[in-house]
Amino acid sequence: MVELRINEDRLLNRINELGEIGRNEKGQLTRLALTDEDKAGRDLLVSWFKSLDLKVEIDSFGNIFGTWEENHNKKEKPLMLGSHIDSVIDAGKYDGSYGVLSGLEVVETLKENKIKTDLPITIAAFTNEEGVRFPPSMLGSLVYSGDLNIEKALDTIGMDGKRMGDELERIGYKGDKAPGFIQPAAYIELHIEQGPVLDKEEIDIGAVHNLQGNSRREIIFTGEANHAGSTPNSMRKDPMQAVTYFMSTLYNYINKNGLDTVATLGSIQLEPNAATIIPSRAAFTLDMRSPSADGFLEAQTLVRDTLEEIKAAGKIGVEATEFAIFEPVIFDKGIVENIAASSDELKLTSKLMTSGAGHDAQMINRIAPSAMIFVPSKDGVSHNPLEYTSPEQLVNGANVLLLTASKIVNAK
Questions:
Q1: 3-class DSSP state for residue 44?
Q2: Is the residue at 113 inside a domain?
Q3: Which residues does the UniProt record annotate as the domain Peptidase M20 dimerisation (predicted)?
Q4: What φ, ψ does residue 340 adopt, rounded to 5°?
Q5: For labelling alongside 202, which of 38, 44, 233, 334 has CA 20 to 30 A away?
């Protein structure tokens, strides 16, 4: 095969063009799943697919696919490249979109150079990866992998009170294909790291060989509101004491036993939330992550046992809702080695990495060999308008994707 490189200007222009969709008068980018802004982004992506004569197909959960196939390879399973185009609130322009548009650039580069492949290539844009409007995250790929019933997912009520299925129909992106209708031969997701490792170590490429398990819960402790000064400790039913005990138990156990686990209390609401009143209710979120199966299981057991201990004491009511529990993922060794080898061929430095964030690849890994490619994020910033990856780094990642994909589809 001739030595190919992606078209730098074309890739960067597309990233910038899509990155303008969803900006408000202050310049903030917000493209939440199934909003009008998301529809506009989808429309633009589909127009790019059609301009390349790709077969555009949409499943009944709104996942979008553009497939490049030739007469000689139509019966083969495709290599799938992709990510998502929905964003968080006040987002950067690279998260998710970079992977989808780099997949598009790979296909266009191969097509315009009249390259033949043994496998088709499908570009995927999965619905609601971020999970901001419709929690939890990665719903589109979770439904696609068959691990979540589509009717249950469509009944998800968003943070704005809207039903997901209704919004999908409203924007015109409820397709006629059953989720999972394309069974990929393999899946690769190119993404900014969203962490500081590559940037700080000045490494070009991350060959992502595993992804942390992640659990997310809302926990509610209920007690009794009372006067902050005149209620003795022995007579208090203080849910904040329970929160403090619960979190310190987790932290102390993790640190004492050297678990490869992190626990985060990211949000808490107290009622009545007054300085001189013992709260009657504390509702908080718990996010726990671990890259190893044993560490992940041990952490989940610790959470459940500690909640049972607090409940058994009889002073505090305990309610826990598990929003999501995703076990750790080991990516395909052959694809990971291919990514590292492609980096070497392009004279780029690389290292094996763990993904600390969740991605669609962890769901698609359940139905096809999968892996991820990371490029640096400046200072590790993401989900933030300051999110930045240099043009050179974006191009490097896309070229690694091009070379890796070319080997898998036997481009010639």
A1: helix
A2: yes
A3: 214-312
A4: -65, -40
A5: 334
